[in-house]
Amino acid sequence: MASVAGDFEPRDLIMRYVKHLTIIVGVIAALLLATGCRDSRTIPMANGRPQITIMVGGLEKVIYLPAMLTEKLGFFEKNDIDVKLLGEQSGASAETALLTGDVQAVVGFYDHTIDLQAKEQCLTSVVQFADVPGEVELVSKADAAGINSLADLRGKNLGVTSLGSSTDFLTQALTGQSGMTTADYTRVKVGAGQTFIAGMNHNGIDAGMTTDPTVATMVNSGDAKILVDMRTEEGTRAALGGLYPASSLYMRCDTVDAHPDVVQKIATAFVQTLQWIKTHTAEEIAAKMPSQYASAGRDLYVQSIRDSIGMFNGTGLMKSEGAENVLNVLGKYSKNVAPMRDRIDLSKTYTTQFVQEALRANQQ
């Protein structure tokens, strides 16, 4: 009688299955080897130099200006590393790219390190660019007459970069002070730059959180007014009850532990840039940046830098009071952090080790 497999006996079927399984395992192994560089704990090398990919939550944003400026000043090269910068408008998406190993570092908001620890992931800020967010809550021209305080945002469409982004956290923190929850308004993902401007000018959002140069563009044109300004220490303390360290270079903890020598090179390059910023004018800084960043006009771009440049701390060091305030804010308004508030270990969310070494070396 014929077997269910036609001419094959059970033994033949087993052998054929084993052969196919071996081929499949081999293919999987080859794919793993080919994509091994996606593990962010592994730093690729070329000609003896580390090859670093850094994702930036908006390359053209002034709050993240140190990333491109470091490249243009040649500080990556001077510290013997090759760096590729990738732009991504959403900090939440950049965070995902880091966790999946597509990049070795992110220039984004420090608060992601706390949010991720609540999800049992370890990220740490290696260089802290700023002690304040550099963010502004804008109100559209069409709604300017009816929105004069945070309480007036109830029932409105509020623009954020994306859900789960730092602008989302900050929006919840600001509205929460007026007794609101996310059920009292609608959060709308509008990205940044031109997509944010389009959302505000075409009735997609009534108000929204963004940064320079978008702030300068909309205020100068009369298309928006400033409701809350967190580009200064004074404005940030008034809005959030203290400092709120934001723009930073953060990495996976296991990457930092595995490659302290490479991390030191990256940190030193950024510290050199932060020190350079403090000794140069907005005009001089703008002259170093890609010309397309000033597409709305050089004067406006210079203004946007001048309005925000005070946010950068000049050292790269984290202030402990700022880290504690970020935890306090997220502990109240982040659905991920709130239940874990008392279990967050802030010492794992940032390190000053590499910045302190860079500062010592630069003083010699």
From TrEMBL:
<dbReference type="InterPro" id="IPR015168">
    <property type="entry name" value="SsuA/THI5"/>
</dbReference>
<keyword id="KW-0472">Membrane</keyword>
<protein>
    <submittedName>
        <fullName>ABC transporter substrate-binding protein</fullName>
    </submittedName>
</protein>
<keyword id="KW-0732">Signal</keyword>
<dbReference type="Pfam" id="PF09084">
    <property type="entry name" value="NMT1"/>
</dbReference>
<feature type="transmembrane region" description="Helical">
    <location>
        <begin position="17"/>
        <end position="35"/>
    </location>
</feature>
<comment type="similarity">
    <text>Belongs to the bacterial solute-binding protein SsuA/TauA family.</text>
</comment>
<keyword id="KW-0812">Transmembrane</keyword>
<keyword id="KW-1133">Transmembrane helix</keyword>
<feature type="domain" description="SsuA/THI5-like">
    <location>
        <begin position="67"/>
        <end position="280"/>
    </location>
</feature>
